[in-house]
Write a structure and sequence with these properties.
Helices cover 50% and strands 4% of the residues. By secondary structure, the chain is mainly α.
């Protein structure tokens, strides 16, 4: 939850612009607020506008647009260096903050309707750090089956719900936020598909296979119909409900997957909800011979470069390639 009273006016104006004009999702707005608040706290410290050295104790609601006008690209570089040395931030984390800072200054310099208009953009030539190229961690096919078996344990009073959640993750590769926000009306049982809202408030269609359809049908047969809360989360419309009969939370889903991983004998510190997304994508590419463009559409990636991390080959594939060399048996 964003506390707007803790923000300066120009930050709240940017968040409003991002919501209404850029059509950014609530999660994106929270990230923008977090990233920029951290940046402004550093700027106050960097410009000696406060004697406080603990970022958490620095307030920014008294910050003025005149301070923002003094920021140069060197000051942004100093912030990124501070993140690296103090917080050991990874390139991906710094890249996200750079993206936020770019969008913020572009708004201040380009939006004629803004009363906080700047005459120069210090982030114009800001470069993105090179990210480490690491293969995504994912469950093998056998481990995926173990996880599904753990999820179907009938001793769990919520086994139908938890099994359906795990089945959707492993078969559809959806994000955590996408799953918890599914509403009943989003599912088209006749066409075996559902609509989800992904990053940037972009809607996309996910087609459901037999396993997903059966898991959803089994869950809906036991999903509570009475006493479901009518609240700001629109729990009465939600597909997945908690035991409190309200829309299931991110944290609850994360706990469910953690518990299932442990029960399946898998390393719950190595795998997570997001790793199940990696698993679904990898299994579809390795076993389903899915075209990378189709995989990009399914996962909701804006760039094909993001999807390409799933096109890695494993050692067995390399071994088979060598063995199939026409010169292998000469």
């Amino acid at each position: 939850m964003i506390n707007r009273e803790e923000n300066p006016d120009f930050l709240n104006a940017f968040l409003d612009y991002s919501t209404t004009i850029l059509n950014k999702s609530p999660n994106s707005i929270k990230e923008y607020n977090y990233d920029l608040a951290m940046f402004f706290k550093f700027i106050k410290m960097h410009f000696h506008l406060t004697k406080e050295t603990n970022l958490k104790e620095i307030h920014i609601n008294d910050m003025t647009i005149d301070t923002i006008k003094k920021i140069k690209i060197d000051d942004i570089h100093a912030f990124l260096a501070y993140l690296t040395t103090t917080y050991h931030s990874k390139p991906a984390t710094r890249a996200r903050k750079i993206s936020t800072i770019r969008i913020f200054f572009h708004y201040l310099c380009q939006d004629a309707s803004s009363k906080f208009l700047l005459d120069h953009n210090p982030a114009l030539n800001l470069k993105t750090p090179k990210k480490d190229k690491r293969l995504p961690k994912y469950l093998s096919l056998d481990d995926s089956k173990k996880l599904l078996n753990a999820a179907s344990d009938e001793e769990n009073r919520n086994c139908e719900r938890d099994f359906a959640i795990t089945t959707l993750f492993l078969n559809c590769g959806m994000r955590l936020s996408e799953l918890v926000n599914i509403n009943l009306k989003d599912i088209d049982f006749g066409e075996c598909k559902l609509n989800v809202i992904g990053k940037g408030n972009k809607e996309r269609t996910i087609y459901l296979n037999n396993a997903c359809m059966k898991a959803l049908s089994d869950y809906l047969s036991v999903r509570p119909k009475q006493g479901v809360k009518q609240d700001k989360k629109y729990s009465d419309k939600a597909l997945f409900l908690s035991e409190r009969r309200e829309r299931i939370s991110n944290r609850t889903v994360q706990y469910i997957i953690h518990k299932e991983l442990t029960k399946a004998g898998l390393d719950s510190s190595k795998y997570s909800v997001h790793k199940l997304r990696h698993t679904a994508a990898t299994l579809m590419y390795q076993y389903g011979q899915v075209d990378i463009r189709a995989l990009q559409e399914l996962l909701g990636h804006e760039s094909i470069a993001t999807t390409e991390i799933y096109t890695h080959v494993n050692n067995d594939q390399i071994r088979r390639a060598v063995e199939r060399n026409p010169l292998a048996n000469l």
